[in-house]
Amino acid sequence: MRSVQALAVAVLSVLALSNVSHAGEPKSGGILRIYHRDSPGSASIHEGATYSVNVPFMPIFSNLVIFDQHIAQNSVDTIRPELAESWAWSSDNKTLTFKLRKDVKWHDGKPFTSADVKCTFDMLMGKSQQKFRQNPRKAWYEQVNDVTTNGDYEASFNLKRPQPALLSLLASGYTPIYPCHVSPAEMRTKPIGTGPFKFVEFKANESIKLVKNPDYFKKGLPYLDGIEFTIIPNRSTAILGFVSGKFDMTFPTEVSIPLLKDVKSQDPKAVCVVEPNNVSTNIIVNSSAPPFDNIDIRRALALALDRKAFIQIMFEGQGDIGGTMEPAPAGLWAMPKEMLESIPGYGPDIEKNREEARKLMQKAGYGPDKHLQIKVSTRNIAVYRDPAIILIDQIKSIYIDAELDVVDTAQWFPKIARKDYSLGLNLTGNAVDDPDQSFYENYACGSERNYTNYCNKDIEKLFDQQSAETDINKRKKLVWEIDKKLQEDVARPIIFHARTGTCWQPYVKNVTVMSNSSYNGYRYEDVWLDK
Q1: What stretch of H or E contains 406?
Q2: HEC string of 168-194?
Q3: Where in the cell is it found (predicted)?
Q4: Which residues pair with 272 in a beta bridge?
Q5: pLDDT tens digits along 398-421
Q6: Predicted structure pTM score
Q7: 250 with 502: CB under 8 angstroms?
Q8: Helix, strand or coil, per DSSP, at residue 336
Q9: Where are the domains of the chain?
Q10: Closest CA to 55 of 186, 151, 197, 164
Q11: Is domain 31-230+505-529 annotated with CATH 3.40.190.10?
Q12: What is the C-alpha to C-alpha distance for residues 315 and 346, in angstroms, rounded to an integer?
């Protein structure tokens, strides 16, 4: 039996070969068929907090700038122009100005202008009359005073203070430009963009269909005639569809290690790759209500975790232990190993940690004769349910009896955003491997995605300090200090960072899987079928 590590090396080698498109010239035509893991709540990327929205709808849109879609590890050095032709910072690093393309049309034929850029960010910053129903990334733009225009083809972001990470935030798959002339309500059901594909239809729980945009501003692209997503929540059923030839590609970064082995045994020609995906599986606790307003109970939870057991059960050992920022080598901001292991609960002696946890629970009034009864809420898809079941089993060891409470995808973000839960098993996908995105979005006081109500004004000052720091090494040390403090405060206990698989048929050419920001999505604009 080949080891999992050997399998990973083999599939990575196949991937490297698959991305060399010199085997033939790109061909136009064909429909790319992908299964989708669940039914998104809407088609509006700006109102969503899940990759389930990005994957099918990102090909409709364009950004001002975007990370190079064929470099797996995103960084500031891989940012490329898209709706912008160029950009420049002012001498005081407080104004970022974009020169815009003049040859871009919205899918309904109206011209794209700087007004659309201003409208998009006015809505994101909560400054316009039209409002998003949910605005999970508003915290990204706290340092932006306003967006101003100079004619139809120039837009400037005027900042309160320097924020070097702003360009990376704008390059994320979560930062498309929306049209001024289309309402947020329409964008939820019939989105209009400037991207390589146009929206055709979205049938909830059934399918999503896109068609080639013949007026795309990148001439000659896309190669595909369209993309069709079939919604199949059951992973095993979906994989059977892939190996039987019903689908050309799996849902990106959704194939577990055991299922990937099944794919390779049943369909040896399939191209599969395993990558870290900058998604942490974590515990969210409603710290504003009993019983988790008690710091002792929160600390006991963190001490009860056997992180290696999660990784072994779910990924056959292929996963990573870390803090908030993605672990190295894929992540660029990870704490050093010795610093991580100094945090309570991260040490290797699990039984010692749990003994300490039981003492904290007894201090809070619980013990062998009085267990804490709770529900563990989680989203009703396998990547959430599976670790939730392991969590429920592990916390039995510290006098907590939990019942699983599964929630449909469309209801998950609204439910936890309004704090309608006690304890949850959550996956946090980071749209950018940058501390500004992770810290402000998930831990800033008042952020919509701060599901736990964690609020530490002293730490927030450090958020600002690292954000304004232009020296990369000084910034890293600040980031490590913040990340360590977040774990010690039990702000959102990180269980593990996943590595997951993506598979496609060998005739699907020019695919890349991102390794440190899979939530940036993928446009499929230069993917082609060699059939």
Answers
A1: strand 400-407
A2: HHHCCCCCCCCCCCCCHHHHHHCCCCC
A3: Periplasm
A4: 503
A5: 999 999 999 998 899 889 988 999
A6: 0.85
A7: yes
A8: coil
A9: 31-230+505-529, 276-499
A10: 197
A11: yes
A12: 19
pLDDT in tens, 475-528: 999 999 999 999 999 999 999 998 989 999 999 999 988 777 766 668 999 999
Strands (E) in 219-324, as ranges, are 226-231, 271-285, 319-320
For domain 276-499, say whether CATH 2.60.260.20 is its number.
Answer: no
What DSSP line would sit under 32-75, residue for residue? EEEEESS--S-S-GGG--SHHHHHHHGGG---SEEE-TT-SS--
CA distance 501 to 316: 13
- For 496, other C-beta atoms within 10 Å of its C-beta total 23
Q: Phi/psi zone of residue 317: left (φ > 0), alpha (ψ -120 to 50 degrees), beta?
A: left
Place of tokens 């998104």: 40
- What DSSP letter does each residue of 427-441 carry, written as one string? EEE-SSSSHHHHHHH
Residue type, 220: G
CA distance 30 to 223: 8
Write the CB contacts of 366 (distance below 8 Å, at least 6 apart in sequence).
372, 399, 400
| Residue 348: both structure tokens together | 């290797």
CA torsion 58-127-284-499 (nearest 10°) is 20
Enter the tokens of residue 423: 């304890």
Structure tokens at 144: 């932006």
Tokens 């409002």 belong to residue: 131
